[in-house]
# Entry
Amino acid sequence: MKKIIIPLLFISLALAGCSASTPIANASPNQATSTIAATSPTTEQTASTTSNDKIEYYFTRAHQHPEQALESQISSAKSTLDIAIYSLTKKDIVDSIIAAKKRGVDVRIITDHIESKTKSEASELPLLKSAGIPLKEDTHSGLMHMKVSIIDKSVVTTGSYNYTQNASTDNDEVLVIIHDAKIASDWTNEFEQMWEDTKDYAEIK
# Structure
């Protein structure tokens, strides 16, 4: 995998422990700066962007609603949506993925083999499967610990944010959105390697 050195992205990915610029109603990137002022966690804040507007980031505990930012990106998908996600249990996000499939988007999902057996995720995966979305899980000894969506091979979302209720409301989490076709192409290549790897990944039936 090619190494792409972007300081902000590196810092954001380092936060991932466990757990296209479409503005959302209460988090307008155009009104923000590249940093967030220290405020009470109950204070509503707008999203933050870098100076070139190619990177947005949304913190859960700053009430920046990463789930809404993610759903907005998924809703903007026109042709492809590739998702590699450790935990996928939030109903609204599942619904937005299914809606993308219904409007003709080519959707693929890879998740973690342990998480796929949990009660909460196991109840959502059949809904995705019944919508005609192909699902895969890792079969290697490690975790499929990524939290990535690639939209139309031009936008990437990543960070510590899992697609769960706790990650949306309680945890210290961040969702990073990268509007860069070159980066999206590199991440798509990595996703393709995972998808085509029949040794370490298998279809969820």
